[in-house]
Request: fold
Amino acid sequence: RLTLRIAELGTLERENETLRLLAHVAESMPGVTAPIVSSIQSSPYGTFMVGAGSEEGVGKGDLVLASASGDKGFVIGRVSEVSAHTSLITQVFAPDASTEAMAGKVPLVVEGQGGGNARAQVSREIEIGVGETVVSSRFHGLPIGVVGSVAADSASAYQTLYIGLPL
Reply:
């Protein structure tokens, strides 16, 4: 019974931390808190469904944010279709989606790869470090990802930035 109680306590602590993060996002930005009701990973189109729609105040084009450890939130998508109690979200990093962004003061074009991943190419002379936050004016200057790795080939004039969501 003690092992069961310890497992229950761990579950409650994780749930409490999730609720704290949601409360932080709700306090810092206006909007609706909604559960994800379909798998983010399963769609080959870079879409997923949330359990809030027009009846809850969701509108087409609204931004969808997810919190990462107490920050203001990362943009993970935009509402593309709305029904009464559900909405279809198209991910920022959907396959073949392209977004103009900035990593530090460096402008770049981020190409979605699906699964919360993207890549961009910049000149080899430019220094961009792992962990650099990527923001986009298209999404009101909010963060859309973090540079996870940088690959440079001596035979190329460019280096490739691999960007992901820290969620």
The helical segments are 2-28.
